[in-house]
Design brief:
Layout (H helix, E strand, L loop, with lengths): L1 H27 L9 H23 L6 H6 L6 H6 L5 H20 L7 H22 L7 E5 L4 E5 L24 H15 L1 H13 L5 H31 L10 H26 L3 H23 L14 H22 L1 H4 L11 H33 L7 H21 L10 H24 L5 H26 L5 H11 L1 H25 L2 E7 L4 E4 L2 E13 L2 E11 L6 E5 L2 E4 L7 E3 L1 E4 L3 E10 L4 E9 L2 H18 L19
Antiparallel strand pairs: 1-2, 3-12, 4-5, 5-6, 6-7, 6-8, 8-9, 10-11, 11-12
Helix pairs in contact: 1-2, 1-6, 2-5, 5-6, 5-7, 6-8, 7-9, 8-9, 8-11, 9-10, 9-20, 10-11, 10-14, 11-12, 14-15, 15-17, 16-17, 17-18, 17-19, 19-20
Length: 672
């Protein structure tokens, strides 16, 4: 029954999407009233919500007659991770994608009124995108495929037809051990998907503007908040992913330049460039064609990210051809890129005309430099990620592009971005004269040099770390000085004046808050990478040893049987340098899950204001244990900085929205 209901729901969403694609364009041409959009949107939303509800019911009730449920969950799986299993694998994650797309489409449709040709055309584009995703669900990525041949655990074969004779296995396979080892994995993927899918909205408006031949910045004004919301969710998704890696994987890091990580970082970089470039067009009418290129790239990269993480191509470049899902995603990506760029080329004459840049020494010039750096950064990561796959595809050999390549490319780009980040907000538009800029940066520059000197005095000898501290202090100093200067010009108490200033221009000050967060993250990344210390010690129960500047005492092993796993760990007491003063009792462990031969090591982390102490089990036998200790300075700054970035994004979109109900526009006749 669940399989049949699920397929019916997906078909309803697919039908609603197809109807919306047609109706949206007809409304845009003035052939139908705007109210005609309601029924298709309702069908799309009800179908998408229904599909997710049915999938969740099937998972929670252990309906193993559905192949997806049998392969991603088990009866003993805790409820939280059962719910999260709905997006733990490809088919379920596409259901989540479709649900978010449908809800976003409904939200956009609420502001489409009579005569709003651009909004109606954008709704048609959203429907067209929905046709692909719901079509994927109803064909090659059916989450409700019926299990027809059970395996010992899980499902061995499925049938697309919901009416096929179902045979449920005795037990489900269970989620991937890594996906049920920490609560962050229940939150991290949905946040990324909210960011990924959110990019569909500005893309839809951009394509609608090109189809209608609408130049100018109207589509940017209509999607400004959507761009910020998507970027904020992408930022939160990246932060939670790094946090999960640090807390769960046990290798002591938070970013490894893994293809899955890069697949989320690249769209974030391009989206960041787009948000900054859009400011220039909205303020000065410049970079019109470039903004179309950026939003096409940002949306396309979200599809590429889905292809990389869900097609199996990362495991082997040939594995994705074993399933039709990989080629379908790749084909959709090709259609989006080629179709969008062809449309832009068709309308290039109407969008390429814009005011010329008066001087590179201006805010526009710095925004342009910012875009150049972010684009080069994104291209570098993209090339490093795809190059091994291309070599394997065309040459047959396997190679990897490791961390040294990415680090060598990222460090100078990141430093340059920090410098531009500090100069941009206080540089005037059109022409920035030294007599105007110097007083604004003089005090922050002194503060930055003092901060760098202080870092050297406390023993920091890493040049890159000192540069990061100087640039971060400069960025924060410029923002603080600007806020203090504006607040001093207002009457009243200083704090009240600051609150008035920050509330008066939320998009601008939200951006400055995000800049502060990024500056703090830069310091944390530099210190935790360059100044970290690591050590290992082999101990028997009751023995004490030294590693990474700390003494550790192995008090003894422990074993805990939980419903879905067996936890094997060690009680370890962290001692001071005198090896007598107890600091904290820690419990690193290894989690063993049924139906999975690979155990998952979980560290125990002591977080402090100065440093994190990271303890993991590195090996050993029945009588002795190898304990790994790592010390990471100022790690808390990374998580605090990331949260500040997210807070800046939220502040940018907060507050009462100005009444911008679209007014009736004359009917547009499209050439051809």
């Amino acid at each position: 029954m669940n399989a049949l209901l699920g397929v019916i729901a997906i078909m309803a969403a697919l039908g609603g999407s197809a109807a919306l694609a047609v109706t949206g364009w007809r409304v845009s041409r003035g052939n139908r009233p705007a109210t005609a959009l309601r029924k298709p949107v309702t069908g799309m939303v009800l179908g998408a919500v229904g599909a997710m509800v049915v999938l969740q019911v099937a998972i929670v009730t252990d309906d193993f007659t559905i192949g997806y449920v049998a392969d991603v969950t088990a009866a003993a799986t805790p409820l939280l991770f059962k719910v999260a299993s709905a997006w733990a694998a490809l088919e379920g994650s596409i259901v989540l994608w479709g649900l978010v797309l449908a809800l976003f489409t409904w939200w956009v449709g609420r502001r489409v009124v009579e005569g709003d040709g651009l909004g109606a055309a954008a709704m048609g584009m959203l429907g067209l995108v929905g046709v692909f995703w719901f079509g994927l669900m109803v064909t090659v990525a059916n989450p409700f495929a019926v299990c027809t041949a059970p395996a010992a655990v899980g499902c061995a074969a499925t049938s697309w037809s919901p009416l096929a004779a179902a045979v449920a296995p005795a037990q489900g396979l269970g989620p991937n051990p890594l996906l049920q080892n920490h609560i962050l994995m229940a939150i991290h993927p949905p946040m990324l998907y909210l960011g990924y899918v959110g990019m569909t909205v500005p893309y839809a408006f951009a394509m609608a503007a090109l189809l209608r031949g609408d130049g100018g910045k109207v589509w940017l004004d209509r999607t400004h908040r959507w761009s910020l919301i998507s970027w904020t969710f992408l930022s939160l998704g990246l932060l939670l992913g790094a946090w999960w890696s640090y807390e769960v994987l046990g290798w002591g890091g938070y970013w490894a330049w893994d293809p899955v990580e890069n697949a989320a970082l690249i769209p974030w970089l391009v989206a960041t460039a787009f948000i900054h470039s859009a400011v220039v067009q909205r303020r000065r009418g410049m970079l019109q064609a470039w903004n179309f290129v950026l939003i096409i790239a940002a949306f396309s990269l979200t599809i590429l990210g889905t292809f990389l993480t869900r097609s199996g191509v990362i495991d082997s470049v040939h594995s994705f051809t074993q399933s039709p899902i990989g080629p379908a995603l790749l084909g959709f990506l090709g259609v989006v890129v080629l179709g969008s760029m062809a449309l832009l080329a068709w309308r290039l004459e109407s969008v390429a005309s814009s005011p010329r840049l008066e001087s590179l020494a201006s805010r526009e010039g710095l925004f342009l430099f910012n875009n150049l750096l972010l684009t080069v950064f994104a291209l570098t990561v993209l090339i490093g990620t795809l190059y091994p796959l291309l070599v394997e595809a065309f040459g047959g050999g396997q190679l990897s592009v490791g961390r040294p390549f990415f680090d060598r490319a990222a460090v100078p780009l990141a430093f340059s971005l920090l410098l531009v980040m500090g100069l941009g907000p206080i540089t005037p538009y059109r022409v920035a004269r030294p007599a105007v800029v110097w007083p604004r940066i003089r005090t922050p520059l002194r503060v930055a040099l003092v901060a760098g000197g202080a870092a050297v005095l406390v023993g920091v000898r890493s040049v890159a770390t000192v540069i990061a501290v100087v640039l971060a202090a400069f960025v924060i100093g410029v923002i603080a000085r600007h806020l203090i200067t504006l607040s001093a010009a207002r009457p009243g108490r200083p704090l009240a004046a600051m609150a008035t200033v920050v509330s008066g221009d939320r998009p601008y000050w939200g951006g400055q808050v995000a800049h502060i967060g990024i500056a703090l993250c830069a310091v944390a990344i530099a210190t935790s990478s360059a100044l970290a210390t690591r050590g290992e010690v082999t101990l028997v129960p009751g023995e004490t040893g030294q590693a990474a500047g700390y003494c550790v005492r192995y008090d003894g092993p422990f074993t805990v049987n939980e419903p879905n796993r067996v936890v094997e760990g060690a009680n370890v007491t962290l001692l001071g340098e005198d090896c007598t003063t107890a600091i904290r009792t820690m419990a690193p462990r290894v989690n063993r899950y049924p139906n999975s031969p690979q155990p998952v090591a979980s560290p125990d982390v002591r977080t402090g204001l100065v440093e994190d102490v990271y303890v993991t089990l590195a090996g050993g036998g029945t009588t002795e244990l190898v304990i790994s200790v790592a010390v990471f300075p100022l790690m808390w700054l990374l998580w605090a900085g990331g949260l500040i970035v997210v807070a800046g994004g939220l502040w940018s979109v907060s507050g009462r929205r100005r009444a911008q109900r679209p007014v009736a526009a004359p009917k547009v006749t499209v050439d051809g």
